[in-house]
Write a structure and sequence with these properties.
Blueprint (H helix, E strand, L loop, with lengths): L1 H4 L2 E12 L7 E7 L2 E9 L2 E5 L4 E4 L4 E5 L4 E7 L1 H6 L1 E11 L10 E5 L6 E3 L5 E7 L1 E2 L2 E2 L8 E8 L4 E5 L5 E8 L1 E4 L3 E4 L3 E4 L5 E6 L3 E8 L7 E3 L2 E3 L2 H12 L4
């Protein structure tokens, strides 16, 4: 699937889950990354981040964290402390976005993109709206700075509406339905928690919403380079992976 979804590497949907109150925030302890970016989109709940490059922050509903691991970073990802104390519902998505070889050893970077700073584009005919996290939608530029051309659109569609989404020809594209259900190109029904992939041919996708629906629409220019991945490292060759492991073990991150 690598070439079919490039530049995206992974999509992890932590679907709505209830957590009891706790004095100890749940999550992932300190761990490394190199060679790609992580993008965390929160729909419900809170996530806190801290890394060895001095970045820290908390994101809640509607917020996005865009972290460039680049040459190497160590970070912690856990539920927000206030959220942990009171308990509640957590729903989030994490994407891994590949970096081209020339940027894999870039300096680590952290973008905390709050909901209020994400541009919103209205869809035609009152069909809903799109939060433009990255890329561009109908002239509205996204909030995130990216190394390669990617579009990350958080779309809310009203039931009974039909809309054409323009997608650059030659880009890989996919749609995840988080809530509701849609009919794609008049043929394929995509239901809640289903992910649809598209070919690179054509420049638009027609979506009809059977009911109020929430979609994550992803598209990006493929990175036509070899992929070598192991655990939290994504590079171009096995030798680069070995070097990443050695650098991590010897404290060079």
């Amino acid at each position: 699937m690598g070439a079919d979804i490039s530049p995206f590497l992974l999509l992890d949907y932590a679907g709505p889950a209830e957590f009891e109150p706790s004095d100890s925030p749940r999550g992932v302890e300190r761990h490394p990354h190199r060679g790609f970016e992580t993008v965390t989109i929160v729909y419900q709940g809170e996530v806190e981040h801290g890394d060895n490059a001095g970045h820290s922050g908390k994101i809640g509903p509607g917020d996005v964290q865009w972290m460039t691991a680049g040459r190497g970073i160590l970070h912690v990802e856990k539920h927000g402390r206030e959220f942990s104390r009171r308990g509640g519902t957590l729903e989030m998505i994490q994407l891994w976005v590949n970096l081209p070889a020339k940027h894999k050893m870039a300096e680590p970077r952290y973008q905390e993109i709050l909901d209020r700073n994400i541009p919103v584009a209205a869809l035609d005919n009152g069909a809903g709206e799109v939060r433009v996290i990255a890329g561009e939608y109908d002239g509205t530029r996204g909030a995130a700075r990216t190394f390669t051309p990617v579009n990350v659109w958080d779309a809310r569609l009203r039931g009974g509406k039909k809309i054409d989404f323009a997608l650059p020809e030659g880009f890989n594209a996919s749609i995840l339905v988080l809530k509701g259900g849609v009919l794609v190109n008049g043929a394929e029904e995509i239901r809640e928690r289903e992910l649809a992939f598209f070919t690179q041919e054509g420049d638009a996708v027609t979506i009809e919403s059977a009911e109020d629906s929430t979609l994550l629409i992803l598209s990006g220019e493929p990175i036509d380079e070899p992929i070598a991945g192991q655990g939290p490292f994504v590079m171009n060759t096995p030798e680069e992976i070995r070097r990443a492991i050695d650098d991590y073990r010897t404290g060079k991150f």
